[in-house]
Each structure stands twice: as structure tokens, then as C-alpha cells.
Amino acid sequence: MAFCIKNLMPLVTCSSVDSGHMLRAAELADKSAGYTAPHPNAGCVIARGSKVVAEGFLYGQGTRAAEIKAVEQAKELAKGSTAYVNLEPGDCHGDDSSVNALIQAGVSKVVVGLRHPLKHFRGKAIKALRDARIEVNVLGEDLQNRNIQEALRACQLVNAPLLYREACRIPFSVLKYAMTLDGKIAASTGHAAWVSSKTSRKRVFEARSRSDAIVVGGNTVRCDNPRLTTRREGGHLPARIVMSRSLKLPEDANLWDISAGHTIVVTQHGANRTFQQRLARKGVEVVEFDMLTPKAVMEYCYDRGFLCVLWECGGSLSAPAIESAVIHKVIAFIAPKIIGGVTAPGPVGDLGMVEMTQALNLSDVSFEQIGPDMLISGYLHPIPDLMPIIPAMEASAPELMLSASDGPNIISFYKAWNAYGAFSNFSPHPIKMISKRGDYVTWKSVEHYYQAQKFEGVQDFLAQECIERIKSAESPEEAARIGRTLERQRPELVRDKWESVKIDVMYRALKCKFSMYPHLSSLLVSTAGSILVEASPHDLFWGGGQEGEGLNHLGRLLMRIRAELLEDDSGSSRINLSTRSSIV
Q1: Residues 218-274: tens digit of each pLDDT
Q2: C-alpha dihedral (325, 328, 333, 337), degrees to nearest 10
Q3: Is 325 found in the same domain as 298?
Q4: Domain residues for 150?
């Protein structure tokens, strides 16, 4: 019998049935892409032999886990069944509900596609399931043979952004361009509308909706005046990032209209201060760098929590991006057109290569006909295989604390799937708050409640409609988008004195959250002695900012609640909601 060197457990043959169910789990995991912010993609299939009895997928960060949805759908059929998950459970730090759902449902076996790439999740769920005497098989570790290769690859592809981000410490970046058959992205005059077909452009809109941000250079803004939207109602809106050292940009551009999406202009320190001020008055965010490079911008996007970035720039920017190794994948639409022109631009500028042997080769290349065009895609850098560095047992919690010699202990939190993500307003923890009528109202997350309170009590149809839309929004990201959009477009609809009461609104929501969930209060108390910092590099009110210049009000409120929990004589983290939670 063959043995796995890593954990000395006997290998199990993977059947075509196992492979088929895992392929389906990966397919389910991809269903949320484009409707909420990019996040780890999770799907779950519960089966009895070849028969599927239930399915579920994670719609978005802060929504109910795939495993919970599948178990609830399976009901009594879950007992003695096998659950197939493309990614080891772990959606929010401090939340074990996915694992508990599988255990309580009585599943007899769990097949895992990939161990979780994030260290604070890696191996934790697998160990918990095995401790509960549930058989756990991991593709490539416990299950080996040719049947798993396709399924394992599907699991890697659906979470490629997460794998790249964890291995490279920058977001997964995709370079997209459309060119003619003779390799031109525009005519010699710069005219580029349109190189590819309408069918291909629909695919581009889909790629945008799957991304956290879209990057273009100053030349693209000047020549094409793009909107960089997804061209559809609802769904995720990626940030638009413009890279320009000089800030010699048009006074009026579609990207300065922030009602269509958030725009960030990244530039060299001190560039065109007057224009920076004009952009700021329009609501455009400006970020200065000492040295503006693709690598520096991607490191900033990593700190900002971005998972996936789409580059739609010209050759003068794509070349340095490729040279600095921040581009991981290329998707190229080739139109059956010839335009010629010695000075007509190509998709990639000078890379300094003088021989064909120096050319960069793509791996995992795929070909697809899109209308009259041909789509060619492939990876410049192979998808990271984290398996060799993953121990058989779960890794310990990440080293988040600074040493005493470095000053006070600091714990940073931001995205719900990062370490200490349960402290985020986007974590999957519904809260119950008392309404003005005196009854309890359930909100899907703290973010849902906070966004709705901006318009509470405003006697206007749009404001009341917005509250209902926020309340029914499936994910916190969607709730935030709805609330922020109306606040930006119709500031007169925001309730009176909102700026003076919003901290108290947030405090009451957080107080409710940490009183309703004992494991959250325990996690919060466990940080005693440490400074909590909401690591948003752009929100200087609730977050700590990029250089620590932010006010960090969210971190301050959590430390205030932590102190109150520690002062509780009974040691209980439960607080009477009827006296401590109310509308302000």
C-alpha cells in the first residue's frame, strides 16, 4: 500500500464519483463571482454515493457559509453522508459554525479540495473534524490517483486569487487587452473604439465585476476617457485606479464621476497639488507615493485588502508591470482585423528583450472563440502550490503581536477572512436591535445596521426605500454600497447630526454583536493588553490609515467594549439587550 510521506496516513483511492462531486463543489464556489466583493470562494456538495442530496455556496463575505446552507437543505439526509468542499472551511476568524454544522448534521466523511491557504485557518477545520471522529480526505494528500487531478486543478483555479495573494503578498493581477490580428491595440492616431466585438466586451465587463480594482494609466484616461464600469445594474463595483506620475490629466473625465464607482488616483509625491485639490473636491481619492511603481501600487492594494486586480492599461504601463512581476495572468482578445501602421501601439511596451529565446512563456494556456474573436489566456507565473509547506497538523495562530522591544502590542484587523476578521463590521454575525416601535429587528450584520441608520427617521420615500434595500441586501458589501451611494448622491437625505451620532450608533451595534456571541466576546477579551487597529489604509475615521494617521474609531470602540467586558464582575460577556441596545 502507498503511503503519504507527510502524515503517514494510508492513501485512499479517489473514485470518479468523488472527482465529480468535487468538480461540482468548485463550480458552485464560482457562482458568487461578480455579485459581491472578491473573496475566498467556497462550495459544498452533500452526497450519498453518486446521488447529490444538497448543495450550497458562499455568496459573499459576511453571508451564511456554504456548509451551513448545504446541511440545512439536506436535513436528515445529511446523517451518514459525505460532504465535498473545494476549500477547507474557514470564512471568518473566530467563527466555527461551518465545522459545527457538519459535525451536528452527522456527516460521516468530508472530502477537502484544498487546505486553506491562510495560516490562521490552515488545518484547523480538518483537525476539528477528525477530532469529532469524522473521516477527512484531502485531495493530493489522503486521496491519490489520476481521478483527482482535474478536481484538484478546479479547486486551485477557483481560488487562484487567494493562493497568489498569500504566496506573493500582492493581489492576484490579470492583464487584459484586445488587439488586432497584426498586434495593434489602437490605430496610429490612438483611436481604439472598438478593437474587439460586442460579445468580447461583455466578457470584459464580467472580468471587471470579478475584480476589486481596475488599473489604467494616464494615457488611457487622456486618449480613451473610459468609464471602467461593469455595465449592469447591481453587483459588485470595482474601484477604478489611475496611475499618473505627473497628474497631467483632463479636468473633466468619466472617471471623475464617482456616482459610477469609487476612483483612486495614485501619483508621485507632490505632483500637481492644484489638480489634486480639484480631484478631492469631486470626491476622487488621491494617494501619493515616494516612488510610483506598479509594485508599490500593488503592495498598497494588498494592504487595502484587495484580492484581485484587473489591468486594462496600455503598453507603456503593462511592460513595467510585467517586469516587476506583479502580473500573474494574461487574457488577450484577438480580433480578426488588420490595421497596420508603424506607430500604431501594441499591448506591451519594451521589455528589453532582443532574442526570441528571452520571450516569456505562458502556462495553462486556453483558447476560446468569443463571437468573431479568439480569447487566449494563460499564466505568466504558475498557480502557487502551497501544499509542500503545509504541515500535516494545523498551523498555530499567526504571529500578530509586536515584540515588547517594538513598543505596544498591536493587533490589526480588516477583512472578515483575515486574522481577527470577526472584529470587522462585515463579519457574518446578525444582530438584533430595538426599533422605535419597541420591537426587535434583525440585521444581517453590523454594517447593514450602520448603513441604514444614516437615513433613519428621514421623511422621504427614497430614504425609506434605501433602508429597506439595505436591510434586504444579501451581503454587507452590498449594504455598504447602497448606503454609501445614496449618501454620496443625495447628501441632503442623511439624517440630521449624523456626524455627531454615528460613533454612538456604531458602539451600540458592536455592543449588541459582542453580547450575542460568547465566542466573539471571548476572542475580544483574549486581546487584552493589545492595541486594536482597524487596518483600513483609506478610511481615516474608522481605520488607522496607511501610515497610522487615521483616527481608528472602530478599534477604539472595540477596546472600550473589551474594557467593559473585563470589568464585568460576573465575567459574563452577555449583556441585557433590552436595556443596552436601542435606536439613537
Answers
A1: 999 998 999 999 887 767 889 999 999 999 999 999 999 988 889 999 999 999 999
A2: 20
A3: yes
A4: 16-158
Closest CA to 71 of 91, 49, 45, 93: 45
In this structure, the strands spanning 43-48 and 51-57 are: antiparallel
In a domain, 387, yes or no: no
Residue 60's H or E segment, with its range, is: none
Model confidence pLDDT, tens digit, residues 336-386: 999 998 888 999 999 999 889 999 999 989 999 999 999 999 999 988 876
Question: 58 and 112 share a domain?
Answer: yes
Q: Are residues 238 and 363 in the same domain?
A: yes
Which one of 158, 183, 216 terminates a domain?
158
Catalytically active residues, by annotation: 67
- Rounded Cα distance between 98 and 125, Å, is 9
Residues facing 54 on adjacent strands: 46
Q: Which of these, 270, 276, 314, 320, lies nearest to 294 by C-alpha position?
A: 320
Grid coordinates 452577555 are at which residue? 574
Give the C-alpha separation, 318 to 355, whole Å: 20
Cα distances (angstroms) measured from residue 42 to each of 23, 26, 158, 384: 12, 7, 9, 19
Predicted TM-score of the model (pTM): 0.86
CATH code at 242?
A: 3.40.430.10
The neighbouring-strand residues paired with 532 are 411
